[in-house]
Design brief:
alpha/beta; Aminopeptidase; two-stranded parallel sheet; 7 helices; 9 strands
Length: 260
């Protein structure tokens, strides 16, 4: 079985930034896949499509990257580990329905199966993230955690930044990231709809950790026509390659400010 996390170490001098991609994975173990309703065995909506491809330059900027290989439909790493573990898409570790409130399972997983998923996929990921943050703090005295996501739907903003209304990171980090995106022509909002999920809130309370959630709209890096169909969009498209060039410049600027 593939490990429940992928760790990408910097290829140049490390900076005090950890980029976290908890929803970037698309893998679903076969036993879980076969338990889904037939239509969802081929396609599941509302995933952070291809963020691993989009952000694969980050280690070359000195940024440490932790990414989830498994789909958020296996376990949602950005949800608190509390009951009900199996339930609402927006609040439970294991979703019972899609983001559009459609049932995923003809027969729900048993309590034992739910606990197995948490033990196999959820806890090891968070243990690795916690250890990684402490490792960076031991070296630099601080760490900036950037929680990277993407979104679709009716929200038309290019970039949504969330720091729990000022509680999970400093104004310095918020302004640094905001200014870098604005400089490349992206429209940015603060704490609008996405003001920080579990990861931002939980780790943002740790001493010497500043956590910021960065949400980018699907339209900024994926092909619009493909987003209108029930299929996984392609990653090898001009939109993604252009966004990747922009984002490399943006995150280079962020990294430079965060080491000063």
């Amino acid at each position: 079985m593939i490990k429940p996390f992928r760790l990408y170490k910097p290829t140049v001098d490390r900076c005090p930034i950890v980029a976290n991609l908890p929803h970037s994975g698309l893998l679903i173990p076969d036993d879980i896949l076969q338990a889904l309703h037939k239509p969802y065995q081929d396609y599941l909506p509302h995933q952070d499509w291809h963020l691993g491809k989009l952000y694969d330059f980050l280690p070359d900027l000195g940024i440490t990257v932790l990414a989830a290989p498994y789909s958020r439909y296996v376990v949602d790493l950005n949800r608190p580990p509390k009951r009900p573990f199996f339930g609402n898409f927006w609040s439970s570790v294991i979703p019972a329905k899609t983001a559009f409130n459609a049932s995923l399972y003809p027969v729900p997983p048993s309590q034992g199966q739910v606990q197995d998923r948490i033990a196999t996929f959820y806890r090891p990921y968070h243990q690795q993230l916690d250890a990684l943050l402490h490792h960076i703090i031991a070296r630099f005295g601080r760490v900036y955690l950037l929680d990277l996501h993407s979104f679709g739907g009716l929200i038309t903003d290019d970039v949504c930044l969330g720091n729990v209304n000022g509680r999970s990171c400093s104004e310095f980090l918020m302004t640094t990231v905001e200014s870098a995106f604005l400089a490349k022509g992206y429209q940015v909002v603060r704490n609008k709809v996405f003001n920080g999920g579990y990861i931002t809130r939980h780790y943002g309370r740790m001493p010497n950790v500043e956590a910021l959630q960065i949400e980018i709209r699907y339209h900024t890096y994926l092909r619009l026509a493909q987003l209108e169909r029930d299929e996984t969009p392609d990653w090898d498209v001009p939109e993604l390659h252009q966004a990747k060039r922009d984002f490399e410049s943006i995150f280079r600027m962020i990294a430079q400010f965060c080491v000063e």
